Amino acid sequence: MLKTNKVFIDTQTYVKAGLHFEGVAFKAFHELCAKGDLVLITTTVVEREVKGKIEESIKDALQAINTVQRKARLLNSIDNGPLHGFFQQFNEHEIHEAAQKVFDDFLKGCHAKLATIEVIDLNEVLDKYFGKEPPFGQNKKKSEFPDAITLAAVERFVNDEDVYIISEDSDLKNYCDGKNNLHQIDSLDKFLGEYNTHTNELSNKLMQFIESKREDIRADVIAQLNDADGYNVSTWEDAELDSFEVVNIDDFEPSIIKIDNNYCLATFSVSVDFEVTVSGPDFNNGYWDSEDKVMIPMETTTRTEVQEISFDVEIEVMYEIEDGELTDIAFDVNIDKLSRGIEFSIEENNFEY
User: Which residue numbers delimit the DUF4935 domain (predicted)?
Assistant: First the structure.
């Protein structure tokens, strides 16, 4: 049985999702909140933290665009060239406002309830800090004050009633372990999986089908990854990606995040090991050009390494229902953002500092 319909989402969960509020898990959660099936609880601390992260991400993105525009300014001289629009000036204020509005709209659409921080007892928070209690821990981490204030506000808001805490933060986990009414879950996907298990009678049958196709799903993921585009983004100048291949894929735990008519959406995250080969200039055995003050390579060299990368995977299941049983079942496997290519980072030197 589901313990409660009240849910608090930590800042870390928003950030891990790339501040992408249109992702499949957030959209499914938004729909349930909009219907009144779930209640999102938030605080001004979380709102400010998330908006601060959005500001940082936009600044980084705009700086990257400005850098590319400067380096590629020659292309801007081509009349009506294919990249002409890329060199137009951006209204930074409008971009910041639009990005913040996406988060505000998400909270508004979820009918989020605000747990105010004015009602908390700061002495209790300070007692936890000086007593080295969670979420501060033995090191009395001052950086945990926002979390401590947020958790205190949420506890006051629910007034001893149950609430799910969505976060992978280890300090928050430790805090929840000591509370009977705070139920920590690592991710929004896993929470939605638990929600559907307890609220939709088809969930168990759909999960049984997905489990029966586990090896097919694994093989499909490997095939898609091996066929994808890849590139090397290390500091090894002019290095090129020669080849890559999946050598290991960890086990995975699908969560059903949406069941709607004859459609089911499940997701999971999985770590994958690749054997990656990159070739590039051999700067280690080059010579120093004292006039231009650069290292001139004379040969090329090759490095092969195993790199681990995590991916988010979606499983779409289409089906019919006859006499309470699933029939005509088909499924598709999609790897999120794979169309952008796989980003590897192989350096010429593998120094460890």
Answer: 7-171
- What is the distance between the alpha carbons of residues 81 and 264, in angstroms, rounded to a whole number? 44
| Structural domain for 34, as ranges | 6-193
In this structure, the answer to whether residues 109 and 144 fall within a common structural domain is yes
DSSP state of 216: H
Strands 240-249 and 263-281: antiparallel
Output b/e per residue, 7-35; b: 16+ Cβ within 10 A: bbbbbbbbeebebebebbbbebbbebbee
Q: Which residue has the higher pLDDT, 23 or 295?
A: 23
Higher pLDDT, 283 or 163: 163
Decide which of 174, 193, 212 is a domain's last residue. 193
Instruction: Determine contact, residues 37/5, Cβ cutoff 8 Å.
Output: yes
- The CA dihedral of 142, 147, 148, 153, to the nearest 10 degrees, is 150
Q: Which two tokens stand for residue 261?
A: 């008519």
Give dist(CA 235, CA 321) in Å, integer: 54
Tally of structural domains, the chain: 2
Give the model confidence (pLDDT) of 52-101 as tens digits.
Answer: 999 998 888 888 777 777 766 666 666 665 655 666 677 778 888 888 99
* Same domain, residue pair 224 and 154: no
Contact 220, 316 (CB under 8 A): no
Exposed, middle or buried by CB within 10 Å (0-12, 13-18, 19+), for 200? middle
Predicted TM-score (pTM) of this structure: 0.78
Cα separation of 231 and 343, whole Å?
A: 5
Q: CA 130 to CA 116: how far, in whole Å?
A: 24
Cα–Cα separations (whole angstroms), residue 319 to 25, 94, 258, 327, 329:
21, 44, 14, 6, 4
Residue 113: left (phi > 0), alpha (psi -120 to 50), or beta?
A: beta
